[in-house]
Amino acid sequence: MFDDAWLVHEDTHLLVLDKPAGLLSVPGRGADKADCLAARARSRWPDALVVHRLDQATSGLLLMARSPAMQRALGDAFANRRVAKRYEALVAGTPDALASDDGWGEIDLPLIVDWPNRPRSKVDLAVGKPSRTRWRVLGPGAAPGTTRLALEPLTGRSHQLRVHLLALGHPIVGDALYGGPPAARLMLHACELRLEHPATGQALHFVRAPEF
Length: 212
Description:
Structural class: alpha+beta
CATH architecture: 2-Layer Sandwich
Distance between the termini: 24 Å
Order of helices and strands: EEHEEHEEEEEEHEE
Oligomer: single chain
Radius of gyration: 17 Å
Number of domains: 1
Strand content: 25-35%
Helix content: 10-25%
CATH topology: Pseudouridine synthase
């Protein structure tokens, strides 16, 4: 069943939904993985189409299109980096605050799927695909020994934020796959989306704060 609390924006062209942690974005393999946000959205909006995904463990803002033409337009916007995404995460330890004027640093490490250990990805300087993440310290986390970060992925590789933060030496809290400190969930949330509405040209800005 679709939960009304997940609806952030609805118009005749697109939807913006707040996916809870633990719910798949799209169906997985097998009958036991049929339940997902896309299926629940289609129970209310039969024309809803997938544009992009979030990891099952990640919560936050997710766009869906309401026609094939809008699905293509939004897909092109993502592919051409005309959609700005921001995440918040709680990480282990205390990354050094940066001395840059805007306080943002960048992780520029190529990534590739770690095939023998799927679904993990890994840094591979020889054959990895270019992958870039901007990060900034927001303050201390709620738990001792943790820090809250703002994250902006400039590319969209599988598990990019999780692997980049591991490489930085500060894995995300609750990320059992990459050795983060244990927690009830992965402390990673897609909190902000900015884009131009493909049909109207209107500047859209959506924010949904994390629960952690």
